[in-house]
Amino acid sequence: MKTTKIILTAVMGLSISLYSCNDDDMQNKLSEDDIVALEGFREAYTRASDANLELKGSIQQGDFDGIHFHDSVFHHYEGLFEEHHEDYSHSNDHDDHHHDADGMHMGSNAMNGHDQGDGHHDDDHQSMDDLMDDHETSTH
C-alpha cells in the first residue's frame, strides 16, 4: 500500500511537471500573425536574394532591360521584407532581440536557449543588411 502511494505520488508529480512545461511552451509559441509575418519577411529575403543574383547576371551580360527589371524586383522584395517585419510583434520569448518605437534594437534574449527557426532573430536583420550592401555595391 505504501509503495502504491509512492508510485502514485511520483506519477502525479511527473504529470504536473510535464503539464507545466507544455503550458510554458504554449505561452512561447508564436501567434498566427507573427508566423505569417516571419514567413513573409523570410520569403521576401529569399526572393530579393534571387533577384540580386539575376541582376548580377544581367550586369555581366550588359542586359540593360534585365538590369532595370531585376533591380526593380529586388527593391520590391526589399520593401516587402520591411512591411512584413513591421507586422511582426517583436514581443515573443523566442525572439533574440526587440525593437523600440524608433526601430532600434533593444536588448537580447540570446541566452534563453531558443533555436534559430523559432522566432525572429538578429540574424534576419544581418542577412538583409548584408544583401542590401551587396546590392548597392553591385549597382549604385
UniProtKB/TrEMBL annotation:
Bias-annotated ranges (Basic and acidic residues): 86-103, 115-140
Stretch list, region Disordered: 86-140
Superkingdom of origin organism: Bacteria
Identification of the protein by name: Uncharacterized protein
Species assigned in the record: Marivirga tractuosa (strain ATCC 23168 / DSM 4126 / NBRC 15989 / NCIMB 1408 / VKM B-1430 / H-43) (Microscilla tractuosa)
Lineage: Bacteria, Pseudomonadati, Bacteroidota, Cytophagia, Cytophagales
